[in-house]
Amino acid sequence: MKMLTRVAIAGALAFTALPTVALAQAAPPIVVVDMGRIAAESAASKSAEPQLKAKFESVQARAKTLGDQFRGEYENLQKAQPSMAKEAFQAKAKELQQRQVTAENEVRGKEQDYARSVQYVRQQILEAVNPIITAVMREKGASLALDRDVTLATAQSLDVTNEVMTRLNSALPRVNVNPPAAPAAAPKK
Questions:
Q1: Model pTM score
Q2: Is 188 helix (H, G, I), strand (E, B) or coil?
Q3: Which residues on neighbouring strands pair with residue 31, listed in sequence order?
């Protein structure tokens, strides 16, 4: 009886181990790419960095200049208020407020231009890196590529970031930071 029980247990264990072995053999190969590193360290992103920095600093400088200008004008208006007629003060305050709104819109437009430039750089890098990742997947026999940021833990052997980076740097050494002009809106009928 003991012998029969041992055989049954061994058979059951062997039977339960078979699906695990089969799953391990059928598991699709995976490659992992550190897209954050690609975005930060690729030749294309490094080539765009000084131009993007200059655009950003230009926006900040313009915002500071306008902010300082309007702060001074508001202070001067406040100082002059006691000697001004109420209507004249209100007209001057309204005019100053309208100019400030126009200036804020100008800065907002420059901020949007900067954001479009950053997005255009990212778009160019993604458009170039996606076929490279697909080619590396094919070469490695992988059926799935994951961004390192979405994994909890990864075996170093799955990481193909260096290979992808090398190919991307050859294919796209630099990018344009000036996005193409948006198509003109169709006239309303």
A1: 0.73
A2: coil
A3: 145
Is the distance from CB of 60 to CB of 182 less than 8 angstroms? no
**HEC readout, 12-60:** HHHHHHHHHHHHHHHCCCEEEECHHHHHHHCHHHHHHHHHHHHHHHHHH
Beta strands in the chain (DSSP E): 30-33, 144-147
pLDDT of 138 reads 94
Phi, psi torsion values for 2, nearest 5 degrees = -60, -40
Q: What is the pLDDT, as a whole number, of residue 185?
A: 60
User: How far is residue 12's CA from residue 6's CA, in Å, rounded to a whole number?
Assistant: 10
Cα separation of 140 and 131, whole Å?
14
Q: Mean pLDDT per segment of 10 residues, for the chain of length 189 residues? A: 49 44 58 95 96 96 95 92 91 94 96 96 96 96 94 91 97 93 65
Domains identified in the chain and CATH numbers: 25-171 (3.30.910.20)
Close Cβ partners of 189 (under 8 Å, ≥ 6 residues apart): none
